[in-house]
Design brief:
single chain; about 300 residues; D-Maltodextrin-Binding Protein, domain 2; 5-stranded mixed sheet; about 40% helix
Length: about 300
Amino acid sequence: MNRSVEDGHAATEKTLVRVGHSPDPDDAFMFYALAADRIDTGTYRFEHQLVDIETLNRRAFDGTLELTALSIHAYAHLNDLYLLCPCGASMGDGYGPIVVSKQFLNRESLGEVTIAIPGTLTSAFLSLSLWLGKPFQHVVVPFDEILNVVQAGQFDGRRIDAGLVIHEGQLTYEDQGLRLVVDLGRWWKDRHDLPLPLGANGIRRDLGTTAIKEITGLLSQSIRWGLEHREESLDYAMKWGRNLDRNRTDRFVGMYVNDWTLDFGPRGRASVQLFLEEAFDAGLIPNRIQPEFVDF
């Protein structure tokens, strides 16, 4: 930080807030108003760093970003450093990460093959681990290469039989002749009648109460501005939509920037708690976590 954010209103220099998010249409849409100065950020200056979610998850252990997108899975290891913002959630309400393959696979056979995954700290990986109920063979592959890797059947000399797909690949996998094995968001919804909690925004605990509330408030304004100025925000989001036309971009943004994004709400928070409890009970995270949300 350039200076103490608690003293922000007394100084003329704006406080730098480094914010990390994925280069995807939904995150681009969510942060557009901040990135394009469509809202008044007051005493804060936002610097956007766009990298994939697994990289953000791992960078968060160093606490270098004041505000960052986090997988709920990663948060289970980072709750001592970050609070969860009540806004900015990515929830899969009856849909979510999917597993795809070229050939027919079921749950039993999926546990015997090698699966390309976007990262071991992603909520997609955690939800697949819960669904399978046992360890499985996997290879970490950049998220935007997974469909190609499954189609090719190999990666870095290793055979790949299936892929765990996040982001816009959930809408485009059939274009590459792949078939759906399981939709993990659908599985969670059928099981609990709750949305699957995938991502959130974490804000560093050491920023102080005033800054935490003000920065969270600005994130909330950015999300709301995007939803209220959808066409302009979609124009920007389309820059990050790999192989998506406008209709598909609009559909994808609608899946992950919606009422859940404005506020987790009681059901969303309950689902986060349940997700982490099941992960702990299954031995997939080291500690039983009580998620803590910013009260602003």
